[in-house]
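Recall that a protein's primary structure is simply its ordered list of amino acids. Everything else, from secondary elements to tertiary packing, is in principle encoded there. The following example makes that idea concrete.
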Amino acid sequence: MNPVVGIDVAKDESEVQAFLEKGKPYGENFSIKHNREELDKFIGFLGEIRSITGRKPVVILESTGHYHTPIIQCLEENEILYILLNPIISYQAKKSSLRKVKTDAFDAYQLCVLYYKEEFEPYKMRGIHLLNLRNLSRQQEIITNMYVEAKLQFHTILDQVFPEYRKVFGDLFSKVSLLILKEYPTSEKVLESNEDDLSNSIREYCPSRSALWAREKARKLIDSANQNPFQKVMYQSHLFNLNMYIDILFHYQGHLSELESQMISLASEIEEYKIIQSIPGIGEKIAATIISEIGEIDRFNHPKKLVAYAGIDPSVYSSGKFTATTNRITKRGSSRLRHGLYLAVLCGIRSSRNKKLKEFYDKKQSEGKPSKVALVACINKLLQWIYALLKRKEVFLDLS
């Protein structure tokens, strides 16, 4: 016998269907809630199937964001073999049915049927270090997006209060810039003070810079206040919002700094991180993102599988006598890995840090390839290098 248990995962509870062997369902489907009591009953149910068939059943379920994590942890704690399926695969299998049915019970049933049709590899458990690094990397991306949105909203408010302030500091979002704007948010506030007071405030917020630099910024601040189209602020709500967004920006900056520190600290304990970072053009943050998304390289037995996982493999379209000559990449893999590789390629070729990659890019362009096509080819090449280095546990050598 070849028992399997299909689980259709939802937010708070999941539907379960078991098969003892192909074409032989076991009992009726039932639902389990994602709490300890019902998960323990589910483990007991798996034990019941094992006693009937003499074999441990395999559990098959779809990857559903984070909703499946309570079940996965329970299965791993009890050393149950499971298959974590890409939803695209199960979706295509459901579409092949002549009957249009969509219920949780039917989905769990179909997962079992699919198990007997295809040969799936059991899910390979990943190390805690890499999973922690991946969680931090993904959280950093989320906070970064929120930070960018806050900056856009901040610009909108600043345009209605003190647009000329942008000319004062090179980095509008530096600590000294935001603190000075918080203390002197309007032209009135600036012009009520003298150059010495402004210079002293700037030195206080940025003691590492010289008095001459602070005085120069104070003069620029006064000039900006004089040129500001809003000499008087009519809406106090704008000042309230400006102050609020300054606090929000500081808040996000603090979290991003802490996340980056945690990521680098954790990544430095991982051997693969140092290997990835040896490639010219790949810095600390990009290396952490790449290695956390790839995980253990043993999960991939061929470089093409890693390329497909990153979603940079070309799609193929052929029908009858027609075969497409221009094909886009599939983009079905990890978007975070793909973005990290893209940044690594840009850093490597634009500054010519990675001479081998720059030569490859120039070669593709000399063949008449468009810039984007050449970039994708470089990403593919870089990923194959990464695969080889991680497999051999060697660092990158630029032999150019």
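The mean pLDDT is 88. The chain has three domains: 4-117, 132-264, 271-392.
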